[in-house]
Write a structure and sequence with these properties.
Elements lengths: L9 E2 L11 E2 L2 E2 H5 L33 H21 L12 H12 L7 H5 L3 E3 L6 E12 L5 E11 L3 E3 L1 H12 L2 E2 L1 H16 L3 E10 H4 L10 E8 H4 L1 H12 L1
Parallel strand pairs: 1-10, 5-8
Antiparallel strand pairs: 2-3, 4-7, 5-6, 6-9, 9-10
Length: 256
């Protein structure tokens, strides 16, 4: 049962149908949910006693895009934008558009720079042994992403909380995790879960909660054109999912 619905947040947790799961954080999310011995009961993926070796930590070896890749692909990206301009009925040779394909290509590479970064590089020197087991929350983290369905912006705020299990993460690194995953082509549901899973795999905390509130320009500028609409997604793992009091405390604190 998705208990986060009780808090009027739409959870992005998906049912695992046993067919291998969907790709998440560069690996199959089913590997996060199942130990080597086979399927587990719901919620077992976040058990605090689970060893690091029980998790497929492929966030350390995510496929990345290098700066050399950017240089090599820039001409073809610019050519593609030239084709788009022509397809829209514009003249790419007029003064105002002469450099637009190159500007747009470099801008898109920046918008998706998360493909160039690895979580392990960000977290490697920022995980500290600390005898602290109270909730840690960083809220109102600005987030900018690109909708993979329409290639238009998604922007909003991310709230993260976790219960340490003898290890804590430098606070700024939570924002860096958000930056890495948001600077890729995304859907908000997947982005929410990727952030939560990355923190879980890195720290093995007793619980993680992530809530994202965002505006989708594909809803504002086209389609239903609802200017004030917001999408709220949540992922709750470990105690945040299993303990209503812990979850309620987190949700109350991020709204205060």
């Amino acid at each position: 049962m998705d208990r986060s619905k009780q808090n009027k947040y739409s959870s992005n947790e998906k049912n695992d149908n046993g067919d291998g799961g969907s790709v998440l954080n560069g690996h199959f999310d089913g590997m996060v949910k199942r130990a080597a011995g086979g399927p587990q009961a719901p919620g077992a993926e976040s058990a605090p006693h689970r060893s690091t070796s029980a998790v497929m930590e492929s966030w350390k070896e995510e496929r990345t895009r290098s700066l050399e890749d950017n240089e090599m692909s820039l001409p073809s990206l610019a050519a593609a934008y030239t084709t788009i301009l022509r397809g829209l009925g514009e003249n790419p040779q007029r003064q105002g558009l002469l450099k637009t394909p190159w500007r747009a290509a470099t801008a898109m590479q920046f918008f998706t720079k998360g493909y160039q970064e690895k979580i392990i590089d960000v977290l490697n020197d920022a995980i500290f042994d600390e005898d602290h087991d109270e909730m840690v929350i960083v809220k109102d983290i600005d987030m900018f992403s690109m909708c993979e369905h329409h290639l238009v912006p998604i922007f909003g705020r991310v709230h993260i909380g976790y219960l340490p299990n003898k290890r804590v993460l430098g606070l700024s690194k939570l924002a860096r995790i958000v930056e890495i995953y948001s600077r890729r082509l995304q859907v908000q549901e997947r982005l929410t879960k990727q952030i939560a899973v990355a923190i879980t795999e890195a720290l093995q905390p007793t619980g993680v909660g992530v809530v994202i509130e965002a505006t989708h320009m594909c809803m504002v500028m086209r389609g239903v054109q609802k200017m004030n609409s917001k999408t709220v997604t949540s992922t709750m793992l470990g105690n945040f999912r299993e303990d209503p009091k812990t979850r309620d405390e987190f949700l109350r604190l991020i709204k205060s």
